Amino acid sequence: SPLTTAAPGKLSVLDVAHRGAAGYAPENTLAAIDEADDRGATTVEIDVQRSKDGELVVIHDTTLERTTDAEEVFPDKGSYDVGKFTLKELRRLDAGSWYGKEYKGERIPTLGEALDRLRANGLNLLLEIKSPALYPGIESDIAGVVARNPGWLAPSGKRGADRLIIQSFDWESAERSAKLLPSVPHGLLGTVPEDEIADYAEWADQINPSHTKLTADYVQAVHDAGLEVLTYTVNDRSDMRAALDKGVDGIISDYPDVAREVIQEH
Ligand code: G3P
Ligand code: CA
C-alpha cells in the first residue's frame, strides 16, 4: 500500500493530534477533533473499541471510569468495561465534564460520527485498534464502517498525506486489518526488533514507537526497509526536535499546534 508523501507547501512531517488534541479538550471526543483542526493538525489519532451490541466507539481506556461519569449513571454495575455496555448506555455518559465543565455533555462518539467530523474538518485519521483481543472480529467491523463512509479510501485529505492509517500495539490485529483493507497503510505500535522489520514490511507501512525508545539508527533501519516512523506521545519542544533530528516521518502529540511550529522551524 502507498506510503505517505507530503505535497508541496504542506508539512514535511505529519503533525498528528493525539486522541484528538488531548492537551486542549477531552480526549477522543468530537470537541477534541475540532480542537485538532483549529490547532493546525494534519491528522488526528483516536482509539476504537466495541460496545456490547457491536457498535464501534471512540475511547482510550478499556474501562469507563477515568473519562466518563459511568459510576454515577450506573451505580449498580460494579465494573465498567467498555464492552459490557450497549451503545445506548454508553451514549448516556458524559465524556467531557472530567476535563472541564465547559465540555459537559460531550459524548463518547461512534467511529462513524468521528469519521464525519474529521471529513467535515478535512483531517486525516490515524486509527488505533485498542485492545483488539477483547473484541474478536473488530478488524472486519472497522473495515465495514470505513467502506460504508464515503471518502476514507481516497488518497488524501485537505492537508495532504494519507486519508486513513490504521495502527495497533497488537501486530496480529494490524495484519488482519491490512488483509481486509489492503489499500490502507498500516502501522505497528511499539518497537519491532530490527531483525524482524523486513518480515513485517511485507504488509506493514509504518513502525510507530514511543519517542523514549527512538534512535537515529532505528529510524534508518525502518526507512531502509521502506517503512515510515511516526512517534508518540511527544509533548515537549525539545523532545519534538530530538525526534525530528532522528528522521521521523510524523509526530503524535497532545499539542499539535506546538508540533506544527517545531516541524516548520526544523
Ligand atoms: O498513537 C500512539 C499512542 O496513542 C499510543 O498510546 O496509550 O495513547 O493509545 P496510547
Ligand atoms: Ca492511541
TrEMBL record:
InterPro entries, A to Z: GP_PDE_dom, PLC-like_Pdiesterase_TIM-brl
MF-aspect GO terms: glycerophosphodiester phosphodiesterase activity
Domain GP-PDE, chain residue ranges per copy: 13-263
Keywords: Hydrolase, Signal
Protein's name according to its UniProt entry: Glycerophosphoryl diester phosphodiesterase
Enzyme Commission code(s) on record: 3.1.4.46
Protein's GO biological process: lipid metabolic process
The UniProt record lists the keyword Hydrolase: yes
One Pfam entry name: GDPD
Top-level taxonomic group: Bacteria
